[in-house]
Amino acid sequence: MKLLFLYGPPAVGKLTVAKELAKKLDLPLVDNHSVVNPLAKVFGWGHPEQKRLGGEFRLELFRSAAKFDKSLITTFGGGGEYYNEYIQEVIKAVEENGGKVLFVRLTAPKEVLFARVGDETRVAKFTIATEETLAETFERIPDVFAAALVGDHLEVDTSLHTPEESADIIAGHIKTITGE
Predict the structure, then answer these.
(1) Cα 22–Cα 119–Cα 58 angle in degrees, nearest 5
(2) Domain definitions of the chain by residue range
(3) What is this structure's pTM?
(4) Are 108 and 4 in contact (CB under 8 A)?
């Protein structure tokens, strides 16, 4: 089982690239928002119970997927110290059940992210749909730009590639390191 863990700051293109990658690799995609959005409807954004349940659900999903050898793609918000404890829990849940986590960091310059954040396709789906909210997120969680503390892994600058090209780069990398 392989968990393809795409992460990076808001508006970097995680979901867009992950959808393309899911098509290319014929893998299910469980993106961050498919988990947290329903919980936010009940508890509100940022509520401790929304965060707790979202984290626990993802861990249990990854644990079970590894146990039953079901590879999948997921998206996540950032790296660095701020997110390290949870990322280490993901690695443990997957590896203890015979799987492997493959990390892909998506990056883009801040000015590109600010230009993307107001796109009408984001407004209906995401909490970070204005430049103000994005700036507040960058200030509140600077590690949203940081690399995960997991050693070497692929990095793709989505400002230099289309979502399809980014997915091709990732798929090629995955095939190279897994031999599949």
Answers:
(1) 40
(2) 2-107+144-178
(3) 0.90
(4) no
